[in-house]
Amino acid sequence: MTPQHQIRADYDAHTIVVYQAYSPAIADAALRAGRFVAPFSFHRMTWIKPSFTWLMHRSNWARKPGQERVLAVRITREGWEEALSRSVLTTADPAAVARAAVHVQWDPERSPRGAALNHYSIQVGIGRHLIRTFTDDWIVGLTDVTPRVRKASALMQTGHTAKAQRLFPAERPYPIPRTLQAVLSPGR
Question: How far apart are CA 82 and CA 40, in angstroms?
Fold first, then answer.
């Protein structure tokens, strides 16, 4: 049985993949530069999600206006864990949330068809005071996965869910350092 709060992600020894959906203008500029550049906003929080299916739900499979392009953002695990160490759960005291460099919230994980599951997926909001560190130091690569997203969506719409799921990234439980477990656990 899946634990109620568990980070599941595509990762290796040094990096983890998180997903974001953007307008074509932001995605194209970032892909050309190999990092986020204008028109990406460095003045507001940006949310990163290690769950592919959660982002598919959120972006309506890259069909939501302003979220037509899906990027797989490979960041260092060191950066990911630094973000988590600086985070506050969005359910915490509002004053603590307002001061936090990073926000964490747990939302119901989603099935490929968008149904809420009985366990949660983490969403990490990188605040504007840490965005330059995220974009300039933590990111090691950007990949446009929109064609794969569109192909998987078309397969699902025609009843080929198993074929579609073969296009999904392999996600497995991410090993959270003991020092971060209490920070990320709701209700503690």
Answer: 22
User: In this structure, what DSSP letter does residue 64 have?
Assistant: S
Please give the Cα distance from 54 to 52 (Å, whole number).
6
Query: Which runs of E-coded beta strand occur in the chain?
Result: 8-11, 15-22, 46-48, 69-76, 87-89, 102-110, 116-126, 139-144, 172-173
Residue 111's contacts (CB-CB under 8 Å, 6 or more residues apart) are 53, 117
Is residue 130 within 8 Å of residue 44, measured between CB atoms? Answer: no
Q: How far apart (Å, rounded) are the C-alpha atoms in residues 131 and 50?
A: 17
* pLDDT value at residue 187: 63
pLDDT at 186: 79
**Neighbouring C-beta atoms of residue 139, cutoff 10 Å:** 20
The predicted structure's pLDDT at residue 67: 98
- In angstroms, rounded to a whole number, what is the distance separating the alpha carbons of residues 177 and 162? 34
Which residues, listed in sequence order, are joined to residue 126 by a DSSP beta bridge?
46, 102
Task: Determine phi and psi for 103, rounding to 5 degrees.
Answer: -110, 140
In degrees, rounded to 5, the angle at the alpha carbon of residue 7 between the alpha carbons of residues 121 and 122 is 35
Mean pLDDT in runs of 10 for the chain (188 residues)?
Answer: 90 98 98 97 96 96 98 98 96 92 96 94 96 97 98 96 96 93 78
Is-contact 33 147, C-beta < 8 A? no
